[in-house]
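Support reply, case 0932

Customer input (verbatim):
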Amino acid sequence: MSINLGIAHLRAIVALADLASFTSAAASLGVSQPNLSRTVAEAERRLGVRLFVRTTRSVDLTGDGHDVTAYARRVLLEFDDGLEQIGRFVSGDRGTVTIACLPSIAATFLPPYIVGFRDSHPDVSVHIKDGLRDDVVASVRDGSVDFAVVAASGRANDLMRTTVSTDAFVCALPSNHALAQRKSLGWTDLADEPFIAFGPESSIASHVRLALENAGVDVGPSVQAHNVAAVAGLTAAGLGITVIPELVVPMMSFASLVYLPIEPTIHRTISVVQLPGRRHSASCTAFLGILVPPRNA
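Our regenerated output:
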């Protein structure tokens, strides 16, 4: 048997059961007494049972009324809890934010922003999808992430970029290297030095290659690797020196390298990348409000 009762019917039943007065129950619900009477009568008609015994002085629950009221409380509790959760999702207090980014950005740049976001939105899950630049940008295009944080490099004219920071490059070398005692280096100091290079799919490689070309510098024998740990290990083994962004330095701490400024200093731009026209959830919008400076919002 299908029973067609709405939330208004259930609220009327529970209010009248609790207050035992049409006047008081109507006031608590913000409706008129005749309106409440019609709602309760309609609920009894649809259920086919009498829920209340009405006298001139009292309103008492029947046996069926006690049972129906108990179930009505459970339904209302779940319904109100569900509404609260929906409200928190719409307001940004619940939900999920999925961010694609480079490994160095995931490890060193984003954590302080996530901590700040977690303080104000403790029930929002933040998912990090770290990977190489092309994969990160592709995940923005296919909509599998809300946005990405990348080092601006290559072409992505179909996407919206917002600069959030810059990252200076330094030279990393073993502590026993002949140049390690210097306070700073010039690009020409790298000439003919054995070099540990990042692979072409890395966001780092293009910046370093361009800087060397601009300085007219040819490095010595090169070993190429694809991740930060490998580059650090190869450099620490004395197989060459390398040039890295400062955000990468904490990820290479295990290798006990020396890091020197290199002049003229080059930077990579850290940008938030979004799909134009995509509508973000409230929680995602809140995270972007922390990450993107107001002048760029």
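We compared this against your earlier run and they match. Two observations from our side: The mean pLDDT is 89. The radius of gyration is 32 Å. Please reopen the case if you see a mismatch on your end.
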